[in-house]
Design brief:
- The protein is an alpha+beta fold.
- It folds into two domains: about 110 residues, 2,3-Dihydroxybiphenyl 1,2-Dioxygenase, domain 1, CATH 3.10.180; about 110 residues, Roll (2,3-Dihydroxybiphenyl 1,2-Dioxygenase, domain 1), CATH 3.10.180.
- The chain contains five helices and 14 strands.
- The strands form four sheets. A four-stranded mixed sheet has the order 7-10-9-8, with helices on one face. Strands 11-14-13-12 form a four-stranded mixed sheet. A three-stranded antiparallel sheet has the order 1-2-3, covered by helices on one side.
- It is elongated.
- The protein starts with a helix and ends in a 5-residue tail after the last strand.
- About 10% of the residues have low confidence.
């Protein structure tokens, strides 16, 4: 499976846990985890390229640009059999798709954009904070700051999300820094733009959050800074609206 997906997409290995047999892959904005399991999962219905394979697990990858001849030549060089192209330009915003089957019998859909390009090349940004105690950090962001846990990979890499804003957490030994100097110079690790800084500050205050900078008015807007359990400083800034 690792050779298949690396050959298909040129995936890079983000992280690997040999003790668990877990490998996390990334190709563009797509991420895929491979985890060993006991028993033949998903194979009972048989496997064949095309829509008939949809009774199995179905994975969809967006491809841009979508050059069908180039894609099929690449699949052929890998010895992969693909079904007919499903062209649905203009129908509910759907583009063409090529279906194939991976070595474990899962259906893989390679989807092209309907109008020549997808709506955006970037979907989100997420700062990555190194933390020594994953569960403590997850509890802080969830219970104090109102984030949801988006995923938690075996306690060594996790994501929290609130209203489309993400922070990734990576379990590691933190590099030392002069925390007092960092805070006295009012530097930030992460900055969030907010609509109502005062209302959010009041919620965080009621939750017992520690502030390195309390609510204040600045020439550019209203802001406050939060200190998380590992000393990371999170700025919450409500910028002034331009006049006129």
């Amino acid at each position: 499976m690792l050779a298949f997906y690396q050959g298909l997409f040129g995936c890079e290995i983000l992280r690997r846990r040999d003790d668990l047999g877990l490998v996390q892959l990334r190709a563009g904005s797509a991420m895929l985890d491979l985890v060993p399991v006991d028993g033949p999962l998903g194979k009972a219905g048989g496997a064949a390229p095309g829509r008939e394979g949809r009774n199995l697990d179905h994975y969809c990858f967006r491809i841009e640009p979508f050059d069908e001849q180039q894609i099929r030549a690449h699949l052929k060089s890998m010895g992969v059999e693909a079904g007919e192209t499903s062209s649905r330009f203009g129908a509910e915003g759907q583009g063409p798709s090529i279906y194939l089957t991976d070595p474990e019998g899962n259906t893989v859909e390679l989807k092209g954009p309907a109008n020549g390009s997808f709506t955006a090349a970037l979907s989100y940004a997420a700062p990555v904070l190194g933390v020594p105690d994953m569960q403590r950090s997850l509890a802080f962001y969830r219970d104090k700051l109102g984030f949801e846990v988006e995923f938690d990979y075996e306690g060594f890499y996790a994501s929290v999300i609130r209203e489309g804003c993400r922070i990734h957490l990576s379990r590691c030994v933190q590099a030392p820094r002069d925390q007092a100097a960092f805070e006295s110079s009012e530097r930030l690790d992460v900055c969030f733009g907010v609509n109502d800084a005062k209302a959010l500050w009041e919620k965080f205050k009621a939750a017992g959050v520690a502030f390195s900078v309390s609510l204040r008015r600045m020439p550019y807007g209203v802001e406050f800074y939060v200190r998380d359990p590992d000393g990371y400083i999170l700025g919450f800034v409500q910028p002034d609206q331009p006049e006129g």
